[in-house]
Amino acid sequence: MPFKPVRITGNRRQVGLALGKLGRPLMASYLDQSAAWAALRPWRGHAYLQELAGHAQEALPAVWEEFEGLAEGLRMPVADLLLWNCRGDLLHKTSDGCTSVALHAANGTRWIAHNEDGDPYLYGRCHVVDVQPDDAPGYVSFYYPGSLPGHTFAANRAGLVQTINNLRTRARRAGVPRMFLARAVLDCATLDQAVELLAHMPRAGAFHHTLGAAGDARLLSVEATPGACSAETVARRYGHANHLIHQGTRDIAQIITDSSRARQNRIDRLVDTWSEATGETELVAALHDTEGDLPILRQAADDPDEENTLATAVFELDEQDVALRIYDRKGRVAQDIAVK
């Protein structure tokens, strides 16, 4: 069945090694065709990259150990893999997209749903991993070859859910690379721990995090940038594309692509129609909406951001459990996973 989870266990280096081996068969051809990789290569050997590495090693030593294992498994120099995993911290515009929605249902269930948009080359070539490190709750995550898990959609065994949307801010600032922070969130046991991590770590790049947790009534929208971190509680329903929209962050210099603007406008209109009876069917329908020249569901070969929807995830959270259902682009269930 598509997206059947690949189980990985062990210490941090062993986990990274297994992730690297899983991605190795595709990595060279993936990078060869990647415009982002071509744009990154002038950064090889730059002192700023080493500064980012220092922040990651000091702040998140366990994640760094996993990262070194990832490089070993890929048979890729650590410096080159760091360059790749810092792409969003170095380049103002990368081919990472995504749209997320969140909803409080009338019966107390909370929903987080997400379109994972990325390089069209990866369609049908990504995995879902079920990772059980020795020293953390463990997690289920969509996995891009060669990238630390966590910057896509994921949930951990403590019941924490995270989906990530790319933000294209114009500022660079020395700090922890954004993909390392997204991975570190999956080691948190509670929403408060995750927000604390995002708010107080020095951040080199920008991501939007939609967060929820089993047993916690809140759903959170967090825009974390190199110079600010805004956390808003979702009152009832919410949608987010790929640019800053919070009151406290939307004036930060950023690139808003035509696709992101169109998807944000469309998801806002769709979310506004949701009622107390809204559930999974409506969430999937919104994320698979094809209205307009730059729709939410992205399948065009000439997408202006060079992105296509690779999978759609729906998380259902209640007082005890988190369930994940993954859909393909035709609206068919590709995988059902009880995370917690």
TrEMBL record:
It comes from the Bacteria. InterPro entries: C45_proenzyme-like (IPR047794), Peptidase_C45 (IPR047801), Peptidase_C45_hydrolase (IPR005079). PANTHER family: BETA-ALANYL-DOPAMINE_CARCININE HYDROLASE (PTHR34180:SF1), PEPTIDASE C45 (PTHR34180). Pfam families: AAT (PF03417). It comes from Bordetella genomosp. 2. Residues 107-324 form the Peptidase C45 hydrolase domain. This is Peptidase C45.
